[in-house]
Design brief:
- The structure holds three protein chains of three kinds.
- Chain A is α+β, with helices and mostly antiparallel strands.
- Chain A has helices spanning 75-80, 84-87, 125-132, 137-140, 150-164, 169-182, 187-197, 204-207, and strands spanning 2-10, 13-18, 30-35, 44-57, 88-101, 104-106, 119-122.
- A six-stranded antiparallel β-barrel of chain A has the order 1-2-5-4-3-7.
- In chain A, a hairpin with an 8-residue loop joins strand 3 (30-35) and strand 4.
- In chain A, helix 5 (150-164) runs parallel beside helix 7 (187-197) and helix 6 (169-182) packs antiparallel against helix 7 (187-197).
- The longest helix of chain A is centred in the C-terminal third of the chain and has 15 residues, at 150-164.
- In chain B, helix 10 (277-288) crosses helix 11.
- Chain C is built from 13 helices and eleven strands.
- In chain C, helix 2 (42-53) packs across helix 6 (236-245) and helix 6 (236-245) packs antiparallel against helix 7.
- The chains are: A alpha+beta, B alpha/beta, C alpha+beta.
- Chain A binds chain C through residues 59, 62, 65-67, 78-87, 215, and chain C through 119, 121-123, 127-131, 343, 345-346, 352-353, 356, 359.
Chain lengths: 221, 544, 400
């Protein structure tokens, strides 16, 4: 499913504008950008993990202001101010974690950043399963890349994948061990991540957070 | 066959052994000191022992502030990753790898494991030993290979090479209650069965010949019952000889004429002898030859004085010596004069392949045991020296004396540093290999035995030892002691032993085999055969 | 930094002091002015104003002519107010705004750029928003001159502003598509393009032509149009009061000896928005007609206005006569504007539809530079480098 369009791109990741206001893909979610092949070369699927979501004024110089009243608040604000859907935008960042060419899965940065204005899609379940069967990509998530702490992104990714893999406990413990190895010299960080991915701590219902309803129905392509 | 990986080699020296980072899923509690493990090098397979286990953490902060009240998930993740364990592994033997595609020739065509000459590179895999590994190192049962027991966690036999075993003096150690006499019975049975040597057993507590109630309350068979007439029973106790169903072949008498100066010296403590006793005995011996003891004991006060004046001996010393040595003549089995022929016959019996158990019966004090054992052994030794000399002259196979293994208990009485230089046993332990006589010493306090003797022991079989001095004593002259030290202390009291030395390729911890019906049967005893039902009933209910 | 901030700061202090002293007196006069407003009957004022307009000497001020209410229920007194009606369940508001890159006298190429933004917001069960902008680069003679064949009267300054209004209204016309619910067309600024007053009649007519045709179009489509004038400086109503008070000739104040002279002079300083500060939240004033001369060019399209309190500010709303005389349309305009202002997040409020239209229309400084660069590039490709005046060039280089 197409969920956004790349509006900023670089070798380590990209920023995409979400098609749905206030509904960026979940933090840590796996997304894919499909690049068509040229004559000789095969197409490439570039995989990335969502590192942040952000909603603000379309024009960076316009800050959002308070709009709620006693009777109009939350979702109703978007009903009463239809222009918000045109003046706000939701963008999300994603860190590149690998790519696939000719069914060859690689978990390192692709040779080129994905092109600007290309579509970002959520990775289908099968692809997610296949990609996350290997865990080398987790170390790419530890590189600093944005406002959200890499540790939280890492944890979010593990939680997301865990859910999408049908609460695959075997996978979770393998991932946890991989992370423990990556963070072997930073105990505090390690615990931060482990607490955040501990399936016993947070009920899954909270995981699928309630985001404000989007007023943008049937967004133009 | 499972080949469970335990970890990877990450460090090491040839002299100090290898350090292995244990896999995350390997719990330290799955390992134990002294475990037989295998390191798969690129070219060689290293048969090794675990000598130590360390707990470590990648981040020292974790140790300073361990996570408390943490969830199972976090704890499980940390275990083996942030916190991990290393094992110190001591390679003992190595085996060059061959083409795995020809497994049929695996065991036969190669020279067996060799002493280690190198160590594997980084990241060589440490794994649990498989049955094949055990078989490769310890061989299979048969011939002189005698199954002593099984690995701690496996059910395949580990063999003692008895032909090599009897070539040298050996020791069985372990604190009391670890089943030393049972071990001795096991080994002696093996020696009898495989005919690699004949046995002379000084059976202080009547444990070897007939039924014996074990500490946990059931009855086990004696060697005579298992091996029948192959085993001759000599006894000092006439009463014992008269007991039904326990036929003693020979009742042994000791003549005062047979007792020598050295026997007395050995008993200084038991007989409460003064330091002058030795000199006094020397004077007596000069005058009376082999009748010195008889003469001394027969002297009245006047004769004593006369002898003192004539020889220059101190009268008080003489009197004290006489008084003390009178104890000997009061022993029931001591007669004024006895021929050596009984003992010589015994040696001949041994030479015919019979095994001899000398029972002490009621005469089981240290005095009796030391006196008789030393005296008998001295005679045996003399005869063996003679035989060996003749064999060297004729070089005829028929003249070759049979390998003899002499079993003594309370070995420190004969082999402590003070007397080891003088007793026959000390001599045998140090040099009698060449006369085809070796010892099997049994003791619970190996630290009481002379170091030089200990270092001469070919094979040591030890149960649990807790005293550090005893552990050190058992390991005298052994390389890679650190691995074995931990192993010795960690043995279970029952049924677990460590064998190291000449008769095994490498030190090995094992569970000893059961000394039970199936064992008797394996030793060729007539057990469970219908027509012997009567014997079985007797075995079950004891004598009426 | 040649600006002597230290000195200015002192002057600012003086200014603040002076103004603080002024305020109480004005408040006092304001109340008297409002009393006056309340005391006058609309029809009486109308008579006086009509009488005055028939005098040979032209009135020196713009005055507000009270309009008769389209329905009897609506205010007839000058100080009468009308509470905001409620908006329909579904309705749209379309707003337009324009901005420009004006012609640059210092550049060798002569052009200007008009960017018109519009916002079409629909409220109700299916809210919707369309925000668009339309830009036009104007460089042909017919764009650059009011009379292109003579290359006379360049379009710049107020003419450009008027041109932008025309363009804005034109885009508004294009943006409107038929919809089954009421729509308000809102313009940022007055419908009375009084700035054209100083131009010649030919110029006025040429420029107003498009404006008026759109107004006619809107009338025909039934879409009410309103000009929203925030922070209005107009004094039309105050001036009408002066005329009411005047005993002699409005241009002969020097000779005036009336008792109301003080009030009359005070009224000269009072703006209508101050006068109507008494309007309650959402209320609008009486409808007035304007005496602006430019309206003579509007023909049938007369423009009326009223003041209203949009919640924090008194604004002037200008509507075409056909809206003013239709009670339904008028109350819809009133209601929709108040609704707009209530939806505004800012204080004082500003109709979101105009804000968004402005956002669409606005040309940022970087965009201005970008346009300039792109144009230079395009011209450069055809061997027409852009030459700037020495003065402009020196401003750009600013070397020291």
């Amino acid at each position: 499913m197409r969920i956004g369009e790349i509006v900023e791109t670089m070798s380590t990741g990209f920023v995409a504008e979400s098609f749905e206001l206030n509904r960026p893909p979940p933090l840590g979610g796996l997304v894919v950008v499909r690049l068509p092949g040229a004559e000789a070369s095969a197409g490439m699927d570039v995989y990335a993990v969502v590192t942040y979501g952000q909603t603000g004024g379309l024009d960076p110089s316009r800050r959002a202001v308070r709009r709620s009243t006693d009777t109009v608040f939350d979702g109703a604000i978007y009903q009463e101010h239809p222009e918000l859907t045109r003046t706000l935008r939701t963008e999300f960042g994603a860190a590149l974690v690998g790519f696939a060419v000719d069914d060859q899965l690689r978990q390192h940065l692709p040779p080129q950043p994905p092109p600007l204005h290309f579509s970002v899609q959520t990775a289908p379940a099968g692809e997610l399963q296949r990609f996350t069967d290997h865990l080398q990509y987790l170390r790419l998530l530890l590189a600093p890349y944005g406002q959200v702490s890499p540790l939280q992104v890492l944890a979010a990714n593990v939680r997301e994948v865990y859910q999408h893999r049908g609460q695959d406990d075997v996978w979770l413990s393998a991932a946890a061990r991989e992370i423990a190895t990556l963070l072997k010299n930073d105990h505090e960080s390690l615990l931060t991540v482990l607490y955040a991915i501990d399936p016993g701590q947070v009920p899954p219902s909270v995981e699928r957070g309630q985001v404000p309803p989007s007023a943008r129905e049937g967004a133009p392509a | 066959m499972s080949q469970r990986s335990l970890g990877l080699v990450v460090d090491g020296t040839f002299s100090g052994g290898l350090t292995v980072r244990l896999n995350a899923d390997t719990s330290t509690e799955q390992l134990r000191i002294g475990n037989f493990v295998v390191v798969e090098g690129e070219r060689n397979r290293y048969f090794s022992l675990i000598s130590d286990i360390h707990l470590k953490a990648t981040d020292p902060r974790l140790l300073a502030d361990p996570p408390r009240d943490t969830s199972l998930f976090v704890a499980r993740t940390l275990a083996g990753t942030s916190t991990y364990a290393t094992a110190e592994v001591q390679p003992m033997l190595m085996l060059e790898k061959v083409d795995e595609s020809e497994p049929r020739d695996f065991l036969e065509e190669r020279s067996g494991p060799q002493p280690v000459r190198t160590i594997p590179m980084h990241f060589a895999e440490l794994r649990e030993a498989t049955e094949l590994d055990f078989a490769t190192v310890f061989g299979s049962e048969g011939g002189a290979n005698f199954a002593m027991g099984t690995p701690l966690a496996m059910d395949i036999p580990i063999c003692l090479q008895l032909d090599r075993f009897v070539e040298r003096s050996n020791g069985i150690f372990g604190q009391s209650g670890t089943g030393k006499s049972f071990l001795a019975r096991l080994i002696i049975s093996g020696v009898v069965k495989t005919k690699v040597a004949v046995n002379l057993i000084f059976d202080m507590h009547d444990e070897y010949s007939f039924d014996k109630e074990t500490e946990d309350g059931h009855w086990v068979k004696g060697l005579r019952q298992i091996f029948g007439s192959q085993v001759l029973i000599y006894s000092l106790d006439e009463r014992m000889a008269r007991r039904a169903g326990r036929n003693v072949d020979v009742t042994l008498k000791i003549g005062l004429n047979q007792i020598e100066e050295a026997d007395i010296v050995l008993l200084s403590e038991e007989l409460n002898l003064r330091q002058t006793a030795e000199a006094t005995i020397g004077l007596l011996r000069d005058s009376f030859r082999d009748k010195w003891l008889l003469k001394l004991l027969q002297m009245n006060g006047e004769e004593l004085n006369n002898f003192c004046q004539a020889s220059g001996a101190h009268p008080a010393s003489m009197a004290a010596l006489q008084r003390n040595l009178k104890r000997l003549s009061r022993q029931e089995y001591v007669v004024d004069e006895a021929p050596f022929s009984t003992l010589d016959d015994m040696v001949e019996a041994l030479d015919r392949g019979k095994h001899v158990i000398l029972q002490f019966g009621r005469h089981n004090t240290v005095l009796d045991y030391v006196l008789v054992s030393n005296l008998v052994t001295r005679r045996v030794r003399q005869r063996y020296e003679d035989k060996t000399r003749r064999y060297e002259e004729t070089q005829s196979v028929a003249d070759k004396p049979r390998q003899l293994m002499i079993t003594i208990e309370e070995a420190h009485k004969f082999l402590n540093p003070n007397v080891a230089g003088q007793t026959t046993f000390g001599t045998i332990a140090r040099e009698m290999r060449k006369y085809n006589v070796t010892l099997l010493v049994i003791d619970q306090r190996p630290s009481g035995i002379d170091d030089e003797v200990m270092s001469q022991l070919g094979t040591r079989v030890s149960g649990k030892l807790t005293e550090q001095r005893d552990i050190e004593a058992v390991l005298t002259g052994v390389s890679n002691r650190s691995a074995l030290r931990g192993a010795l202390a960690s043995l279970d009291t029952r049924q677990q032993i460590l064998i190291m030395g000449h008769a095994v390729p490498m030190p090995i911890m094992m569970r000893t085999r059961q000394y039970d019906e199936s064992f008797y049967r394996a030793m060729g005893a007539r057990v469970g055969v219908p027509r012997d039902a009567e014997v079985d009933i007797r075995d079950l209910f004891g004598d009426d | 930094m040649p600006l002597k901030l230290g000195r200015i700061s002192q002057q600012m202090q003086d200014m603040a002091q002076t103004m603080a002293h002024l305020l109480p007196a004005e408040e006092n006069l304001l109340e008297r002015a409002r009393d006056c407003l309340r005391s006058i009957r609309a029809d009486a004022l109308c008579e006086k104003l009509e009488w005055q307009s028939r005098q040979p000497v032209r009135m020196p001020w713009l005055v507000a002519m009270p309009r008769s209410a389209p329905q009897a229920a609506l205010p007839t007194g000058l100080a009468d107010t009308a509470a905001p009606p409620s908006v329909p369940s579904t309705f749209s508001v379309v707003g337009v705004d324009a901005s420009s890159i004006p012609p640059d006298r210092h550049s060798s190429v002569h052009y200007y750029l008009v960017n018109v933004g519009y916002a079409l917001l629909t409220y109700g069960r299916e809210p919707d928003a369309i925000l668009e902008a339309s830009s036009q680069l104007c460089f042909r003679d017919e764009d650059l001159y009011v009379f292109p064949e003579k290359r006379d009267v360049p379009i710049e300054g107020t003419l450009l502003s008027a041109r932008m209004e025309v363009e804005a209204l034109h885009l508004l016309q294009q943006a409107l598509d038929s919809r089954p619910w009421p729509t308000l067309a809102l313009l940022d600024g007055p419908l009375i393009l009084w700035t054209l007053q100083s131009e010649t009649q030919e110029v006025r007519r040429a420029l107003l032509q498009g404006f008026l045709s759109t107004m006619i179009f809107l009338k025909e489509t039934g879409v009410p149009l309103a000009g929203y004038v925030s922070y209005t400086g107009s004094r039309d109503v105050a001036n009408s009061l002066r005329v009411w008070l005047c005993q002699g000739q409005p241009n002969e104040c020097d000779r005036c000896a009336s008792d109301d002279r003080e009030l009359c002079l005070a009224l000269a300083k009072i703006r209508d928005r101050e006068l109507y500060a008494f309007l309650a939240d959402g209320e609008r004033s009486q409808l007035f007609g304007s005496s602006s001369q430019i309206l003579e060019e509007y023909g049938e399209q007369r423009v009326d206005f009223f003041y209203m309190n949009v919640g924090g500010e008194i604004v002037r709303v200008e509507v075409p006569g056909w809206v003013a005389s239709d009670a339904d349309l008028l109350s819809f305009v009133h209601a929709a504007i108040y609704d707009q202002c209530q939806r505004s997040p800012s204080v004082p409020p500003y109709p979101p539809v105009l804000q968004e239209a402005h956002e669409q229309a606005a040309i940022t400084a970087p965009e201005r530079r970008l346009v300039e660069e792109m144009l230079e590039q395009a011209l450069g490709q055809y061997g027409r480098p852009v030459v700037r005046s020495a003065k402009e060039d020196s401003k750009r280089r600013r070397g020291v």
